[in-house]
Amino acid sequence: MLDLSAGAYCSYEGWVRNHNEGKAVASLHYSGYPQLAPAIADAILAEANAKFHLLDASVVHRTGSLNKGDIAVWVGVTAHHRGDTFLACRYIIDNVKHRLPIWKKEVYTDETEAWIESNHCGCADPKNLEHHH
Question: Residue 45 and residue 55: Cα distance in Å, rounded?
């Protein structure tokens, strides 16, 4: 993303933490819908580019099993001005969390598991998508 015409770069990292709502988390498992997620991510990036006059923007959301401390989602943005990078980074991560068809299952240290409600599209139940790659 290095661009000598850029005056600013901003990034966001979402990490796997060791707890959620009072339960000790051992790991996370993200399931996605690969036939749809890239197109939605591209649309979010295009919206951010148009809205905030960016030079470049990128987002990566990992799927599969992740351990504590791993980066689950990364956003990077470059622009001529820092204000645009801050706003665009926030816009991208908020929209990724809301719109991307990716689901999170927490695995707890007591060996129980739970799918975590997210604020996104309400697409099909992830348990039904896992076997349809």
Answer: 11
Tell me, yes or no, whether 43 lies in a domain. yes
Residue found by looking up tokens 């498992």 in the block: 29
SS3 59: strand
CB 106 within 8 A of CB 113: yes
Q: How many domains does the chain have?
A: 1
What is the domain-level CATH number for residue 68?
Answer: 3.90.1170.40
**Quick check: is 12 in a domain?**
yes
Percent of the chain with pLDDT over 70: 88
HEC-encoded secondary structure of 72-124: EEEEEEEECCHHHHHHHHHHHHHHHHHHCCEEEEEEECCCCEEEECCCCCCCC
| Residue that wins the pLDDT comparison between 20 and 130 | 20
In order of 1, 51, 67, 114, the CA distances from 48 in angstroms are 16, 5, 30, 33
Q: Mind listing the pLDDT tens digit for each residue in 33-59?
A: 999 999 999 999 999 999 999 999 999
